[in-house]
Specification:
300 residues, eight-stranded parallel beta sheet, globular
Length: 300
């Protein structure tokens, strides 16, 4: 299994080409590249040309860090047909960048709208008709995360949508910080997904459903906002023992193609310390199959 750093907390303090050495300095052997203005920005055309891609590949080689996964976020399930078609074109460039970097794993979101679920699902399948042959031709695997505020947010429902494409090149992303939006238990989700679980994002979050919906100040309860954080492990309400039991039962922890990502976004001012803490904690939990630290407000 690959343990990767998501460098999002460092986007404003390091350049794209500095990320590989940063990851190495923090103890990581792998990177997950997420939306960045010089690479694959949110929702817009990729901004890296062939020269920048080559420089990034060279920087990885020099730092002895591999890119385990790339995360484009594009509106390929938009009910707006112009936006959907545009996203498909952007995806094709993202695929070429992944191929040039030698990365076979991509992960993403569904990219639709919860207030238009049927239209978004129809748009998703239209995009798959064009893009899945590209993924299959290039030997890429694309795992999809049911992100809060998307047209499908629950774990099993999301897997059914992905499974319906009928391609082994599509799989599932489990984001621990989305636990309280997934509705289904981790064991149930991962039993259904099987070996198509390819990426797990490791971050904690509080249960927004606790205290009869008043855990957060988003009154009145029932507002359409989707509340979640990406805290360091141990600072929230995720049941890590339950999650690791599910990961172990799924076989994810023992597969060479699996990617486990530190994805903490809540503490940029302590990003270096938190990244090291995450790596140590993930490795300890892997060895102990889920013996997680108790929640603390000052552990880094």
């Amino acid at each position: 299994m690959k343990i990767a750093l998501d460098p999002t907390p460092f986007h404003h303090s390091y350049s794209l080409l500095e990320f590989p050495q940063l990851a190495a300095d923090l103890g990581y052997e792998y990177l997950q590249l997420t939306p960045h203005p010089d690479f694959l920005p949110f929702f817009t055309h990729p901004k890296a040309d062939d020269a920048l891609v080559a420089d990034l590949k060279k920087a990885c080689a020099e730092a002895e860090v591999e890119i385990a996964s790339i995360l484009p976020v594009l509106r390929w399930s938009s009910p707006d047909e112009n936006l959907r078609e545009t996203a498909v074109r952007y995806w094709k460039r993202a695929v070429q960048i992944a191929v040039d970097l030698g990365t076979v794993q991509l992960n993403t979101e569904f990219g639709g709208r919860p207030e238009q679920p049927e239209e978004s699902e129809a748009a998703f399948y239209r995009s798959m008709e064009e893009l899945v042959p590209v993924f299959e031709r290039e030997g890429l695997h694309v795992a999809i995360d049911p992100h809060p505020d998307d047209f499908v947010e629950e774990g099993l429902a999301a897997w059914r949508v992905t499974r319906g494409v009928n391609s082994p090149n599509l799989g599932f992303v489990l984001v621990a910080a989305h636990s309280f939006h997934l509705a289904d238990a981790p064991g149930d989700i991962l039993a259904a997904v099987g070996e198509q679980l390819r990426v797990v994002h490791m971050a904690d979050t509080m249960n927004h459903r606790a205290s009869h919906g008043l855990r957060y100040i988003t009154n009145p309860p029932g507002n359409t906002v989707r509340v979640h954080q990406h805290l360091k492990i141990g600072d929230g309400d995720v049941n890590w023992q339950e999650l690791f039991k599910a990961l172990s039962g799924n076989g994810f922890l023992d597969r060479t193609e699996s990617v486990m990502v530190s994805s903490v976004f809540a503490e940029d001012e302590y990003a270096h310390e938190v990244s090291r803490y995450q790596l140590t904690t993930m490795m300890d939990m892997i060895r102990g199959r889920g013996d997680a630290p108790e929640r603390t407000e000052d552990k880094q």
